[in-house]
Design brief:
Blueprint (H helix, E strand, L loop, with lengths): L1 H7 L5 H13 L3 E4 L9 H20 L4 E5 L10 H17 L4 E3 L7 H13 L5 E6 L5 H8 L5 E5 L14 H17 L3 E5 L3 H14 L6 E6 L4 H9 L4 E4 L6 H11 L2 H10 L3
Parallel strand pairs: 1-2, 1-8, 2-3, 3-4, 4-5, 5-6, 6-7, 7-8
Helix pairs in contact: 3-4, 4-5, 7-8
Length: about 280
Amino acid sequence: MRLGAARFVAGETLDECVAVLRRLNEQGLHANTTILGEDVADESEARAVATEYEVVLQRLHDEDLRANVALKLTHLGLDLGEDVAYENARRLVETAAGLGNFVRIDMEYSAVVDRTLEVYRRLREAGLDNVGTVLQSYLYRVEHDLESLLPLAPNLRFVKGAYLESPEVAYPEKRDVDAAYLRLVERSLRGPGYTAIATHDEHLIEHAVAFTEREGIARDHFEFQMLYGVRPKLQLDLVGRGFKVLVATPFGPEWFPYLMRRLAERPANLGFFLKSALRR
């Protein structure tokens, strides 16, 4: 598992992560990074995580890296109350703004979607524009969520969704998830915000490329995003075609729980990760 983790996690320390981010930048790739962890136990721990992220943001600035941060609100205290997570997130978004950087609020399991989107709205209403969030296409509710966010000209990443959810809240069939994904991406691309197309599915990628060309959508209106260690050749191929590609590059000592949760939440990930580990 340590050998497998090294493929998908950029080390246990910030120094190790910075080396990976620099290498990605040298290949023409952009990146974000995440301190692995979630579900903190008390407010002091949540504040300590925010302090760690401030160190990361300053280091990205000092190293002149083309990288931002992505974070989970449960890591900033969402389970302790929305206000706790909001105050910590606002502190980081303001810090990032002062450094000319950006913060992405990741989306987690369905039970926290409403609170996550509310924190995002509060940040935008506070006049902070350097913040985005994520929508998951396997949730039935997601198209309504997108429509409610469009007036904000949001910066949105679209994913299929990796958490194991009940058929009562999420599409159980891949074809329905994929169809919803394409509808969301097309709607967002036609909208006033910025679209991050996060997928390793070449069919979905090529559909998005054809759509943007047909609709005359400028390439500075969207980007592609992929995971560190997954389809690296595809990442570089897209860069070679002139597209912006951002690589999600997590780090931290909690790499083992991170991998195990991903596999437990969606067992199909196991085969995907094993195949990716064999592909360069």
